[in-house]
Amino acid sequence: MAVDLRQSRLKRIELFCYAAIVSWVALYSYRHPVYNWDLIGYVAAVAAIDHHGPQAIHRATFEELERSLPADRLQELKHGGAYRQSVFENPKYLVQQIPFYSVKPTYLALLYGLHITGLSVPKASIWISIGSYLGICALIWRWAARRIGDPRLSFGLSSLLALAPPVALAAGLSTPDALSSLLVFAGLYLILELRFTVIGLCILFASIFVRTNNLIICVLVSVFIVSTRRSWPILARASAFTIACAVAVRLINSVTGSYGWRTLVYHTFIAPLPNPAEVQPDLTVGAYVRVLLSGLSSLHYSYAVAMLLFFIGGAIALRAVGYRLAWGPAAQGAALIVVSMSIHFLLFPIFWDRYLLGHYLAFIFISTRLFSEASLVGEVTDRSVPVLAPLELSEIPSPKHLPAT
């Protein structure tokens, strides 16, 4: 009884300390937000809901920014380069940037909803990121407690992940990255860990309306479900889910007037286009290959390398003590995350942690589960019941040598 009381008190202390760490990061992010140029595009997309015409949208956008951003930061966003200068000086060019940002309808709906309650759009973007960060940290705590038996190790891992730069920095960004990561992380947790497939798929489907590139993980999760639960009804439902996701992305791109993949890659990696509606960028195969090779350099500062080293180091350590990784649902889950990240890189050739944060976190916990299953397999093998060698006939005593009864 005393031991249970002490453990319960220790858990409460650990939860309090974890909550204090997460709250500190959230407060710091609120007081020191990171406003990048994408904020102008999101403010313009929200302004276009109530205003019509390039002049009106331009005026509403920059009036909102002038009320909310520090003067020096706003000056950098308006005049920090020829591209930014062109968009600021030409209202028509600003309107042409909106399709790059209106392809996130759920995020824009949240921004607009918070804006009509009285928040400025920049502040609303930070509140969404902070709320998403809190949700991510809650899932980290829950998954760690479920997967790691030792409460102290669970608390340590949760705290390190909450303070890790990709996670902590996402709380202060004026972008939908934290929200997208929360939905992807939650969907993978429900499907890979709890096996709540229907709810998990619904959450992943919702993530498409925050970032359309989440279509990749949705399709691969469907493949994972079919490969682990082989039956015709499962195949039919997974196929229907995949088609629904593809149709949703097609509708989003069509309604918002998306410029397409070629223009996006050219605009992001070759030369920013102030007037993308008026030009047809020439993305040749050679140019794409050069962008792809250049994008590999982003691995130097990406936590994807740390994630893969974590997995390789764990696998080598298990191998060194005689254990082996079992190919099962955990290994397949880890593989689908790596494949998803690889396809994402091929389509958008850079490893930006804020785009893949949900993948990183899910991979860490799936790897932990995989290591745990490998250890259990090794223990069962090492503790197998020994089989006694059969006795020779000469060793069996004859009846006359048996003791009398």
Poorly predicted residue ranges: 377-396, 398-402
| Share in β-strands | under 5%
What overall geometry do the principal axes of the alpha carbons give?
globular
| Secondary-structure element series | HHHHHHHHHHHHHHHHHHH
Main beta sheet, described?
none
Overall pLDDT confidence: 89
Which class best fits the helix and strand makeup?
A: mainly alpha
What is the radius of gyration computed over CA atoms, rounded to a whole number of angstroms? 27 Å
Distance between the termini: 53 Å
Number of strands: 0
Feature tags:
405 residues; mainly alpha; 19 helices; 73% helix; 0% strand
List the helices and strands and how they pair.
Elements: H1 2-31, H2 38-50, H3 54-68, H4 71-79, H5 82-89, H6 91-97, H7 105-116, H8 121-147, H9 151-163, H10 165-170, H11 177-193, H12 197-207, H13 215-228, H14 232-256, H15 261-270, H16 285-295, H17 304-320, H18 329-347, H19 353-382
Helix pairs in contact: 1-8, 1-9, 2-3, 3-6, 5-6, 7-8, 8-9, 8-11, 8-19, 11-12, 11-19, 13-14, 13-18, 17-19, 18-19
